[in-house]
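Submission sheet (multi-component)
Chains listed below:
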Amino acid sequence: MNEYTYPILFGVVIGTIARSMMLKTDYRQYPTYLHGRVIHLALGFIAAALGAVAVPAIMEKEFTAVTFLTIAASQFREVRNMERNTLTEMDGYELVPRGNTYIEGIAVAFESRNYLVIFTSLVTTLSYLVWNVYAAIAVTIVCYLVIKKFMSGSTLKELVDIEYQELHFEGAGLYVDNIYIMNIGLPERQEEIKKYGMGFILKPKNFDVRSTIANLGQRQAILHDVSIAMGVFRDSGTPALVPLIKRDLDDGRIGVFILPQNPDVDKAKRVIGAVPVLENAIRMPSESKASQKGSE
Amino acid sequence: MDIEKAILSVITTNQTKVGGGAPIFYCEQTEEMEKVAANLEAILDGIAHRLSNELYIIVKH
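Outcome: structure written.
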């Protein structure tokens, strides 16, 4: 026991708690329930320990201890690779795949959350050492708020208006509103689609959103999330029954065609609204210097 | 370059409209054509597309 024991312990405990708080197993069931969680809690503990130990090391003038953090960084990049590889491999066996953009988003979240843990335990240990335990608790609360902020990305309902539209056929062409989805030849398939299918029109609220929802990865994420939450009327070897999203080139609206097993329109709307906006799909054409000059 | 889509077979009731490389199934009536198309769709894991009332193609996507 020495003067650093309690601060380090405090930092490690807070960091690990922070990681378990960020590890929510929701409707996506990922990380998988038990073993996946254990892996990430263990890594979170390691991250917390690294963050907590860094401060006393520097106080003891062991400046080389900072190199530890670089090892941590490469370690957590490995976490990202691991998640990406696992999810990509499993994606081939999903009835409606997540798509690479979604997978990348999940993998990045795993990596960044470990850095948040390092940051949390670093500042809490630091404030414990510099001031006292009460200050450390106050800093913990601030960290909690910061983490909450980082965890909550925006969802689709902030970007688009969602509207239910009946599906219809013109000849063999399947349409949602005026957006052409695909050619369904067989009358019996058409009947199935009329019976189970649902159409939604997502109308972008502004110009920036147009390119975000046009992103193929973002569209696949919508289809995947809806299929998870609502079920999907599909099996292997029935490529005609595939949920699709197509775009209206004129005004950037997208037409969502889904085949849910649960025919609840309001729920489907809520599910689409709750789809996360993928970091990698966000575009901000209005921020470009060229477009700002033009508007002056 | 990988070719992603391919026409796996053609089903028709009008022989004068078709020709070429893909296997062609010639049917007498529309009902028969729809039946053959449905079967081939299931067998080939493709999608049956209707190009006109007398012509179906099965496409691998």
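Remark: The CA atoms of residues 21 and 238 of chain A lie 40 Å apart.
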